[in-house]
Design brief:
The chain has eleven helices and five strands, in the order αβββαβαβαααααααα. Helix 1 crosses helix 10 and helix 5 packs antiparallel against helix 6. Strands 3-2-1-4-5 form a five-stranded mixed beta sheet. It is an alpha/beta fold and 312 residues long. The chain folds into two domains: 211 residues, no CATH class; 80 residues. It is globular. Helices cover 48% and strands 14% of the residues.
């Protein structure tokens, strides 16, 4: 990049990203009109669709929150070799093969068709098993229900476990022996798939502390416990971890978390403030860059010979 003007590189990046956004939007429109993207020749054995939210700052403050921080939405579609279904060090864990990504700052209703098109490209119709993976965030479950027919929806194990430890601290105080004992016991129950017993333990502590009171902050223990009774009750059908492990399926969203970090690394700087157009173009460009199916190389292979190859 030596000798190149920074503003010129910025203009090139915006132009390239805008091209990718137009291509993506055209594919979504085509899908709505009945044109599906080309799918792989070989049916995936196990396809995992993961999604989560990242963070960036807009140029203008949100009228309601008075904050510049906003959420971008990140998708990964990953093929896996299933595990052998055995726990412990001797067991073969599920292995990710190839991941591709989509990211947008648009709302969930716009993001859904983008996710569907990418999944179509990766063979969602041909796959032997299709899993939706996430943390149960607000936009994720409705989107998965709307866009996909899944063999299972799985709440990421680490997120579920973190919820339990938050409840342990809420019920007994941080770093107390009682919190450690309760957290370890309920985590073991969750690992064994005994979700009803986990919910009963949460209800017991919630009843002991009582209902949230007017003036309680959101992080008050009464709120934390009440909310998590609802969380585990709502998602108990997505926490059948022994069954998932037995089938050799992944139970963690590490691939998705890593993807969010890759996008955040580019757009989440405290000194970076994005326009709506700017954030969309750079997210599209970043997705092309980190995709593992040589999409970035194919993009450059189609560029005019006069286009500055040093931008690669």
């Amino acid at each position: 990049m030596e000798g190149l003007d920074g503003k010129q590189v910025e203009r090139w990046s915006e132009a390239m990203g805008a091209t990718l956004v137009r291509q993506r939007d055209a594919e979504v429109l085509g899908y709505r009109e009945g044109r599906r993207p080309e799918c792989p020749a070989n049916a995936p054995q196990l396809l995992v669709i993961g999604m989560d939210g990242g963070r960036y700052q807009g140029r203008e403050k949100d009228p309601e929150s008075q904050s510049r921080w906003r959420e971008d939405k990140v998708l990964n579609v990953t093929t896996y070799i299933p595990g052998d279904g055995h726990d412990g060090e001797e067991g073969r864990k599920p292995q990710p093969l190839l991941s591709t990504y989509v990211a947008t700052a648009r709302d969930a209703h716009a993001f859904g068709p983008m996710a569907r098109v990418e999944a179509e490209r990766r063979g969602v119709r041909q796959a032997e098993v299709v899993i939706g993976m996430g943390d149960g965030g607000n936009f994720i479950d409705p989107l998965l229900e709307r866009e996909f027919r899944l063999d299972a929806r799985i709440i990421d194990w680490c997120h579920a476990s973190e919820h339990l430890w938050d409840c342990a601290k809420a019920a007994f105080g941080a770093d107390t022996p009682e919190a450690a004992v309760w957290g370890e016991r309920t985590e073991a129950l969750l690992w064994d798939g005994r979700v009803q017993e986990v919910i009963a333990a949460l209800q017991e502590q919630s009843h002991r502390l009582g209902n949230p009171r007017e003036g309680d902050p959101k992080q008050h223990p009464r709120h934390v416990l009440r909310q998590n009774v609802g969380y585990f009750t709502k998602h108990q059908g997505h926490m059948r971890y022994p069954e998932y492990r037995r089938k050799g399926w992944p139970i963690g969203s590490g691939v998705t978390e890593a993807a969010v970090k890759q996008f955040n690394k580019r757009v989440k700087g405290t000194e970076q403030f994005w326009s709506d157009r700017g954030i969309e173009t750079i997210l599209a460009l970043r997705a092309a860059w980190i995709n593992q199916d040589q999409r970035w190389e194919r993009y450059w292979a189609k560029r005019p010979a006069s286009f500055p190859s040093r931008c690669k």
